[in-house]
Structures are given as C-alpha cells and as structure tokens.
Amino acid sequence: MMAANFGNAVLTIIVFANHPSALLVNIVCGLLIVIAFHTSLGWWRGHGKPIRRHASIRGTRNAVIYGALLSFLWATIDIIGFADATGSQKQVLIALTVGMTAGAGFALATVPAAAIAFCGIMGMGVAISLLLTSDVIGLYLFALFLIYAAIIVRASLALCKSITERVQAKLAALEQRDVINLLLNDFEENAADWLWGTDADMRIGHASPRFCEQLQVPDTFILGKPIIDALPFARIGSKPIDGTETREDFHRRMCQKQSFRDADICVEQAGELAIWSLTAKAIIDASGTFTGYRGVGRDVTASREARLRIEHMARHDPLTDVGNRTLLNEDLTRAIARHERFADPFSVLLLDLDRFKQVNDTHGHGVGDELLREVARVLNTLCDETDTLARLGGDEFAILHMSAEGPQCSGVLATRIIERLQRPFSLKSGTVQVGVSISIGIACAPIDGTEADQLLRNADLALYRAKVDGRNRFHFFDTSLDASARRRNKIEHELRMALTNDTLSLNFQPLISAESGKVVCAEALLRWNHPTLGPISPAEFVPIAEETGLITGIGAWVVNQACKLAADWPAHIRVAVNLSPRQFISPGLLPMIENALQQNSMTAARLELELTESLLMNSTPGVGETLQALSRLGLRIALDDFGTGFSSLSYLLHYHFDKLKIDQSFISDLETNADSRAIVSSIINLAKELRMSVAAEGIEATGQLDLLKQFGCGEIQGYLVSRPMPIDQFEAYLAAESSAPLRLSA
C-alpha cells in the first residue's frame, strides 16, 4: 500500500508541475511520500520478526487512522487541483481517485473500518471538488463515483466476511489436526490396539510402539519387512482355531489390494496361542494406483473366549454343564435334516429321576444339586460321542441317540442307564441313591415321527407310561399311548362343560349298622355318563379334575347336590361326601359347606366328610384349623382308607375324627389271614378307646361280615350290602328297608 501511495504521489507531482496550485499539490504529495517512507521504514525494521498470529487493538486502530489520513490527503489533492486542472490532469486525478479507492477498499478489507473510512473520506473529497466546478459532467462523474464507492464498500465487506470464514475454518482445521495428532499419539502409546501401515509391496512402512511391543521386537527390525513375514502365524495346522485365517489365506486377502475388516488370525508367541484381529484400508492415490495399507490391529483372545463362554452358557445347563433345551432342539433339527437327506435313524430318550424330591427334602438342595451333577456325569459316560445329553429342568434329562441299529440300540442304552443309576452314589453327605428308580420314555424316528415336537411329545407319553407301569423301567412309544393322550385331552375338555351340560350325577352306596341292619349313612359317589364317550370311571376323570383344578367346582356341586337329595331322607340317615386334598385346602370350603346346608335346610350333623390320609401326609399349613372349623359347624369327619398311610397313629393324636373307615385291603383276606384279623381287631378297639365309630368297606362275603360283627365293627359297607345306586333306586331301597333289616347281595 505504501509503495502505491509513494508511486502515485511522485506521478502526481510530475503531472501537476505546471498547475496553478502546484505548490499546494507538491506539499500534500510530499506528506504522502513522508508517510509512505515512514511506514515502509517501520515495516523494514520488523520484517525479520516472526509473523504475528493475532491482530492487536492498537494495530487495528492505527490502520483506521492511517487510512483516514491517507484518504484525507488524496481528497485534498482532488479539492485543490481538479477545478483548475487541464483535461489530461483531470483524467489523471479521476484515475488516481477511482484506483486508490478501489485498491484501498480491497487492500483494507480485513479491517472494514479502515476501508469504509478511506472510501468515505475520498467520497467527500470528490463531492467537494466536483461541486467547485460548473461543468455538468461533474455531476455525472459524482453519481458514477457514488455507485463505484458503494460497490467497493459492499465488495470489501463481503471479502472481509469470506476471508474471516476462511481463516476461522483454517484455524478450526489446525485445531482439529492438533487434537487428532494428540489423540493418535495417545492412542499409539496407551491404547490396547496398534497401528500399522505398508507400502505397495506389502512391506511395513509404519508401526506404532504398541505394534512393536506386541511383536516383542524393535521397530528397526520390522520396518521394511513384508508384513506376512512379520506376523507370527501359528504353525499347528491349517485351521488352528475356527473362524481364523491361515498365513496363506491372509496373504491372498492382502494381495487383493482391497480394504478389509476384522480379519482374525491365529498367532503363537512364547508357546501360547492368541487371536489377533486386523482391519485395514487400501490407500489409492489420485491416479487410482494402490500405494499400500493403513490399518489397526488388536488382540481379541479374551473377547473371543468370553464370547465362546457366553455361547456355551446359552446352550448348556449351568448346574450340570450338559446341554440344555436349546442345544437339544438345535441338534434335533440337524438330526432330522440328516434323516431327510441320508435316512439316518435316531431316537429321543426322556429320563426322569423318580422321587427325587425326597432327596432334596431329606438331605437338602445342595446334596440334590450334587446328585444331579453326578447323574449327568454318569449319563455322559454312557452316551456315545455322537449323542446329545441335555437337562430339560429339575430332574428331567433327554438324550438324542444317534444309532444305525435303530430302536434295539436305544433299548440297550436305556437298560444300561437304569442298571447304572440304581447303584448308590457317594456324595459329600454320605451315600445317596437316586430316589428309588428311574423312568425312561423312548421315541424313535422315523417310526414315531419326523418332527421335533412330535418326537418329544411321544417320548414324554412313553415316559408317563413307564411311570404308570411301576417306574424303574423304560417304555417305547406306541400308538395306544397317543390314543390315550387324545382321550385324556378330550376328557379334560369335556369335563369343563360337564356341569353346564348336566352330565354328572350321584350314586349312593349305603352303610348299615352291623348290629341292627338299618341304613345309617350313604356315601355319595360321583358318576359321569358322557353322551359320546359313554360312562367314564371316576378313577379316570377325577385325577384329571385334580390336576386341572376343576375338582373345586365339581366338589362344590357334589356337596350341594348330596345335601339337596339327602334333605328328604329319614333324619337318622347321614350322607357322606369325599373331599379331595385340593378341595380341602381351598379358602372357599367353609362358606361353600355352610351355604349348601342352609340352602337345603339340612342339619350339619347329617353331613359326613371323608378325608384320605394323603391329605394329612402333605402337611399343608392350616389343615388343623380347617378340621377344627368343620367340627365347630357340627359336621362329622371320617378318616377314609385308614391304615394305608405312613403314620396313621400320629394323625389320631394331632387331629380329631368322628369315624375311621378301615381300608378294604385289610378286609379282602380277613377270613384267611390271621394278621389281617389282628390288624382289623386292633383298629376297632383303638377307635372305641378314642370314642370314634368304625366302618369297614369292601365287604363282599358273609364270613367277613360275621367276623366284623364279632370284633364289634359298627358300620358295614360293600357289595354284600349293596352296590352304588342312582337316587331313585336308593330311595326305593330305603322304602323297603323296614321289611328287610339286612340285605345281602348275591
């Protein structure tokens, strides 16, 4: 800028040498030359110093002052020289004014205040000089100058904004570069990953300190060395670990000259194997030529082991470390696929430890867990390498058995398992046997199905049959089991609508006094006559009602119906109703019985509830309180099937009963077995001492009746007296009772 001012000032002195105001013009130009010289001298003195990175407020203020001063001097030349100037001199002044204004506007664009000050003062000078002349052309020139000045100022501001944004972007880029360099240096020094780079010939051109540390060599040893030779590939096989690449595989990948990600290789250092994961970007120059790789690597041994552990846990039982249901389903799917492709037979064995709950109750759950681990270990030793052993939950195991010999081989395996698991196990708590026995159900493909769900279902049906047949055995699936299961499902479905459809009914079997022969009680027995299935035995549908919870609603109907029918009987005849354990523990039992008695206007003393010892053996909380509440209602409580439990005498000590019913198992051989006679006689005497009545059930012979009368048994029930009868026949039986005190069936 100062050079331009100096040159223009010298030129102005020469042009205006013969001008009337040449002296004034020379003085002003001299001032311009002095300022230019002074400023240039200051620049010369400081040009060797480092370039300033930041502008100061003082420097900015000085730029404005210098701009205003210079523009003032040039405007003064216009004012004193334009009016009397010749045509040539005016052209020079116009060129100088426009040129200096435009030059200063762009030169001072980084200091907008200085540019505006320069253009503004020059504009005022032009205005004054043109006003001093009477030429019309002066007005046109003034208008044109205003337009030019406005354009110059606007362009100067835009240029300032553009330069500012570019400088800010450059500063931001420099700052980001510094941050990236800082992070990159920190990454190379401290991160677990390492950086590497190669040239076009796959030779290592860059290796971070972490990379050298991982290779356990100095950088001078590997720089310039082919990366395929620098990496310590394991030499124990073509595929040392699943999912990794061999030296040859990795070399082919590198030669493709394409970016890749997470290429796992198996390396060996100091006799230990590790997994490294390498990622690289192929570097291509502007001409499209491959110039090398820039990549990162990491040791993923720990993460791979963690992933394998997670995958193992997802498919294995945490207690026994054998497979779980997920692994069984996966292997079963693969077995089905092999069968469809190669016709390979296989079988599914479901195993259940019988009475395992007793081990937990007796020895604790810790011993139970240890026992399950031992059982799993034994099963593993008995299975083949191609078999899959899985624990499905609790004490239930499954074996997917692969054998070309078919069902015979599965039967042999089941026999070996049963024989081995019958032997005692030595545990920390002592010697414990696996319950009493083990039950196994077997389903074979393709005989019993070719779908996973179907095979598991059929094996489960076979397991259920093995338990029903007496446990400690195995059972193959057959179609009769499927038919039985379908019948059971149909019964369960129909049983839910039995009350609504009015297909349930009650039969009554009388109990007579052994002394008088009169009917004193009648036991209400539930019957179900299905429209399509026909009569269904209670032994078949009552357990289903127990399992499904339907017994509560059905039992309430039985109590209410028994009270309704017995309300019209003679007042001395009671009605006995059996209560299931599930019904007994129901919180609605007492309200239900009270409601039945009230609705049917029946006294509580005429209702007798029969309980089995199985209810008392479960030690369900609240049994004693419920029995006491029933007794307070005035009901009679009878203990049915007495003598078949494990601690009958303790029941008599803890609970109050009004009657004992001797189980028919003691009555059947009463005439031929002296021990049975002794037991029955003792029970009768015990009941008398405890102020309870005694009833004997299952009487089918007159000899049994005579012995019971001799022992002093109070009530008799059985086919000798009468079979169960519908309500109309029973009421006819009562009507004819007075003429025949004791009726003995043929």
Characterize the structure shown.
The chain is of the alpha/beta class and 746 residues long. 53% of the residues lie in helices and 18% in strands. It has an 8-stranded mixed barrel with strand order 13-14-16-17-18-19-20-21, surrounded by 4 helices.
Short account of what is shown:
With about 750 residues, the chain is an alpha/beta fold. The chain is elongated and about 170 Å long.
Spatial order of strands in the largest sheet: 13-14-16-17-18-19-20-21
Largest sheet: 8 strands, mixed, barrel
Total of DSSP H or I helical runs spanning 4+ residues:
28
Give the distance, in angstroms, between the N- and C-terminal Cα atoms: 143 Å
Based on CA inertia axes, which overall geometry fits? elongated
Classify the beta-strand content into a percent band: 15-25%
Radius of gyration: 55 Å
Question: Into which percent range does the helicity of residues fall?
Answer: 40-55%
Report low-confidence residues grouped into runs of 5 or more: none
Q: Would you count the extended β strands for me? A: 22
